[in-house]
Amino acid sequence: xxxxxxxxxxxxxxxxxxxxxxxxxxxxxxxxxxxxxxxxxxxxxxxxxxxxxxxxxxxxxxxxxxxxxxxxxxxxxxxxxxxxxxxxxxxxxxxxxxxxxxxxxxxxxxxxxxxxxxxxxxxxxxxxxxxxxxxxxxxxxxx
Length: 143
Fold this sequence. Notes:
By secondary structure, this protein is mostly helical. It has helices at about 1-15, 25-45, 55-60, 85-105, 115-140. The protein has one domain. The longest helix is centred in the C-terminal third of the chain and has 26 residues, at about 115-140. The chain is flat, with a radius of gyration of 18 Å.
């Protein structure tokens, strides 16, 4: 909990030092970190019986009748659409796409002095870490 508190204190400090603060990329990086924390929790600590969230069971969701020898449950369920078959893939996809979106928005933003790009990097890193810590060490702690 103290890690989350420290990170949340530093995000506004770094954000106010930015050339032009953009809350959307910071929010997306927070969601990215939270998604990664949730995916790691599912992979290493999940104990429920949910067919969608439990990685011990959910891997079967992409296969017809849960059996890889019977082929895909629907076209692309083990490749391009695997994101929608289980919680672990969904959270890892959310992690990836929100980080890409945040960077795309930032890169397409205004031109600024180099030192502000470094501050952006620190701010986004802190937001990502805050999201991860919030899910992995606070919400899912002791589960």
